[in-house]
Amino acid sequence: MFGQPTSPRIRAALAGTLSAGLIFGLAACGDGGDDESGSTDASASAIDCAPYTKFGDIKGKTVTIYTGIVTPEDTPHIESYKPFENCTGATIKYEGDKSFETQILVRARAGNPPDLAIVPQPGLVKQLVSTGKAVAAPQEVSDNVDKFWDKAWKSYTTIDGKFYGAPLGASVKSLVWYSPQEFKDGGYTVPTTLDELKALSDKIAASGKKPWCAGIASGDATGWPVTDWMEDFMLRTAGPEKYDDWVSHKIPFNGPEATAALDAVGGYLKNDAYVNGGLGDVKSIATTTFQDAGLQIIDGNCSLHRQASFYAANFDKSTKVAEDGDVFAFYLPGPDANTKPVLGAGEFVVAFADRPEVKAFQTYLSSDVWANTKAKLSSGWVSANKGLDPNNLTNPIDKLAGTILLDPKATFRFDGSDQMPAAVGSDAFWKQSTAWITGQDTATTLNNIEKAWPK
Amino acid sequence: MFNTASTTPEKILQMLSALLLFAAVMGVILFIAGRFGGRKGDRVVAYLYLLPVVLLLAVGLVYPGLRTIYQSFFDAAGDAFIGFDNYGTIFSDPDQLTVLRNTVIWVVLVPFLATAIGLVYAILVDKSRFESFAKTLVFLPMAISMVAAGVIWKFMYEYRPDQGTVKQIGLVNQVIVWLGGKPIQLLIDSPLNTLLLIVVLIWIQAGFAMTILSASIKAIPDDIIEAARLDGVNAWQMFRSITLPSVQPTVVVVLTTVGIATLKVFDIVRTMTGGNFKTSVVANEFYRQTFNADNQGLGAALATLLFLLVIPIVWYNVRQLRRSEAR
Known about the structure:
The complex is a heterodimer of chains A (about 450) and B (about 325).
Chain A: H1 6-27, H2 41-44, H3 50-53, E1 62-67, H4 74-80, H5 82-88, E2 91-96, H6 100-109, E3 116-119, H7 122-130, H8 139-148, H9 151-156, E4 158-159, E5 162-163, E6 165-172, E7 175-178, H10 180-186, H11 194-206, H12 224-237, H13 240-247, H14 256-269, H15 284-287, H16 290-293, H17 296-299, E8 305-306, E9 328-331, E10 340-351, H18 356-365, H19 368-377, H20 396-406, E11 410-414, H21 422-437, H22 442-452
Helix pairs in contact in A: 4-19, 12-13, 12-14, 21-22
Chain B: H1 8-34, H2 38-71, H3 85-90, H4 94-125, H5 131-139, H6 146-156, H7 171-178, H8 192-218, H9 222-230, H10 235-263, H11 267-272, H12 282-292, H13 296-326
């Protein structure tokens, strides 16, 4: 009736909106990868080539390696491959991708996998092996792992009796960040047992300050820091053997051991007298990002923050991370001073090809030579490789993590949620932990996770 | 050339080769098409031009669509046929029911509120002195990606406790404090948090509704308006009897277009709450089940459900567009 001239205008307007969206979409596709390649002493140093040349002449051959490690952490990686490239004449093609964890499965299933992948979770290694595309590690790598790693590490990538990949880096999760200056001023001492930790928290709380700060928001992975807390307490209240049974679901997720562990965590995280320094009440833990929470120590609003060694990267450059600096960490103590369970994580190198050059490079990555080269090149990196000389670790927090990992009294256990089936480890455990923080009781939380475990 | 490119020059090279390939394919089609002439030839040419589109749609849309529907009848690993069990889960599991409830709230509120706000705004600023400036202001959010909008509003709703020297950093809570209230954790309590997320999409879509409706209002012939004025109508009567009936087809198109966008909402929920605190919607849950929980069956079922929900709206939308163009 009246509408006739309308449509062309509408279409023009529609076209305008659509193209605006397209331009913004395209702009988002730009990438910020600029390569910095400068040789340092460590990467230029010559190594003994015999272990690698015995695989044959691999000069001019190329090995592709695909990882989730991107700028700036990729530079020391690429640099640490140089001694191998120089002595064998092979080329390593490095590819870092932020969405590695979903893409590697897509690529393996589609039959287009890289030669090697750096996989950060044992659970994902299992998924990759189940695609049938991963190949078992060569004998040389297996020998290196027997020689340089605690045997717990080998079990994480041994599937149906076959060993699939050597560990690469490692991180320590059983750490509590604190301010050395505040400890000095307040006359506090670093606790060596769980009881002392509780006493210290009470002491700080009595001074009118909320001792702990915590944050679990992390996009769609919101909740994961609680899973670390619970695993740490499971190791301490139930012991490493029960912990293994719980992770592999030999005992139920909602059994008495797990209930006791989560309630112990609740003694800290759901205790209004303890949390959430500078950030609000218990519920505020759910909306505070894990990156932000610990910064309250610098602001003086909180005294203690439990988070892994990699948290050092969250403090800005002017903050000195050292025993005599602005902030440092201590080992989250065990039930008594002589029992030292350590919760940690790490990466594994999984191969999808068994050409000589791939095997040679795998062998190099599992050696003490590589671990020491890498340690000299990077900061914020450690390995549980026993051949690693702690003196090669430059910054104080790496040194602390290295010492904890290589302590003969320590009992290392890998992050449990990384080994559980995805429906639990990267879904129900996170979601239910978040609900637990915002008010859900312990029994309901654990029952819901147990229900989600794939039958 | 078809391997994954990692450096910028490689990516540019890859893009150029894709463009070359496209040009080559088009060249071949044009060449073949050029060899046909006459009346019968026109038909062949038309089919030839349709061929690439049909092929790409088949590979990129039809096949994955059918495959997803097929997968939705299988279990988490995609191995065992389980019939309609996944759909049963969607309509019985308490978590999934919350997801459905939220999706309904979104689909009811966003299109109507965004369209209403857009319409009122378009009428108010119509023929005023600041019209283009006022319209630009409301249209701006449309140029912001949903993720960016989510991040911006997350800061708006940010909470800091009422404690010592701690200062608010979120605008909404600061206003509450100025008015003498205590800061609230806006994104935690359901269903308030869902409503606050809905505000973000309305903020984005109102500009779209306003632009389209404004164009439609301007197209109302002046003689009708003048005739109405001579009859002595007041502002309300003008709106009720002249403006609204004239733009009614456009209103329907806007409502349905925004409705489709709302059904697919994902970015806002994922950026602002990650679907936690009972704010998840179907599109977010589908992603979560597929990629986080590794439950391909349930993920596919949710995607299929979303598809089924969108179809009637798309159908209605296309019918309306055709009808308004036929006039």
